[in-house]
């Protein structure tokens, strides 16, 4: 029997015409593997237990499933998505809003820790159809009687393994206890750890299990192991690899917060542009770090697995494993962050003699031996460290002051006379804004922002990356 011409396309699903038209306008035609496998059971009203990582299209999958079930005329919370980090929650909420833009008056609200409570209380008072949030903050609103989940139809646990790893199990279970037993539960996890199964069994009823195989292979990711003689040689090995390969954008994964801080500091001392991302950072510093790395004002992000989880980092050239991850599935997930969207990437793992047994376990887990390669010659240490393409300017004005990205771009390219191609990403937060510009025009751009006006007002501006 010949295959339907629409097989693998969104039009083959029983989605509302408005959603299909919007998907077409967004350029979404063919489904990704996770969408093709998870959407049919979701639309059929089943619980779903899915193994899928960031970048697989899972957000659109559960977003469409949830929006298909909304009774838009009922202004009650019908969908709840729990995420491990504020960054992931913001991304998920943004994607659901995009998918919902053809539906009348769908309100999506984010409730995250690290953000002020006041605006969240005001938004809750006005009601919402879908809430996206972190477990701690959602549980706090529930405990204080500000959030009512009695009408909840769909609960999504996104990156469930990381939420458990970050200590959110008690909050997650407290939230589930406040939801109707008739709800649907869709659990997405990059890894199936031993902790996931019992929770899934308690929260779900006869779930459809979906697993999408990793699509990375040797053609997209070059994975190499480099031996180091001892601990003193580990950092030298990292420097050799960075100076030899000179990736424009890379992540160095460490297993502890302390090591993350130490490695980032040592890289900066050696002349590299590196930032540390770990759980001890204040939310403001975390936001700043992520902005600088995403807009290419810093070349290297040194991070723990938990802190980096949920970050949708585009065009990552290389991943460096300072050590093999404690959890072997997490190690595979690290490697999958490079070589995405069909581009090639590189994963380098440093292994000392006493870690040989872990390397053997990793090879066994992967089902194949890992190729070992010699470190670059020490003469590359004489090379100058590479600089990032961009630098970032910060404005002391944001959404509260009605500043929009277009205002900043106009100030730089209009009166400022700077070529628009030399202006990078612009990120506007509540009370501040960040703009990336080519390093060569940074002084001109800063002078323009300091002396010019936005919305008829002057704002303080400063350069925050070297």
CATH homologous superfamily caption of the largest domain = P-loop containing nucleotide triphosphate hydrolases
Report the sheet with the most strands, covering strand number, pairing sense and barrel closure. Answer: 7 strands, parallel
Oligomer: single chain
Strand order of the largest sheet: 3-4-2-5-6-1-7
Strand content: 15-25%
In the CATH hierarchy, what is the architecture of the largest domain at level 2? Answer: 3-Layer(aba) Sandwich
Rounded to the nearest angstrom, the distance between the terminal CA atoms is 62 Å
DSSP strand tally: 17
Overall domain count? 3
Q: How would you classify the helix and strand content by structural class?
A: alpha/beta
Overall geometry comes to globular
* Radius of gyration, CA atoms, in whole angstroms: 23 Å
Individual helix count: 17
Mean pLDDT across all residues, rounded?
86
Query: For this structure, what is the CATH class of the largest domain?
Result: Alpha Beta
How much helical structure, as a percent, in the residues? Answer: 25-40%
Unreliable residue stretches? 1-7, 215-219
CATH fold annotation of the largest domain: Rossmann fold
Keywords: ATP-binding, Helicase, Hydrolase, Nucleotide-binding
GO cellular component, one term: cytosol
Organism: Billgrantia gudaonensis
GO molecular function: ATP binding; hydrolase activity; nucleic acid binding; RNA helicase activity
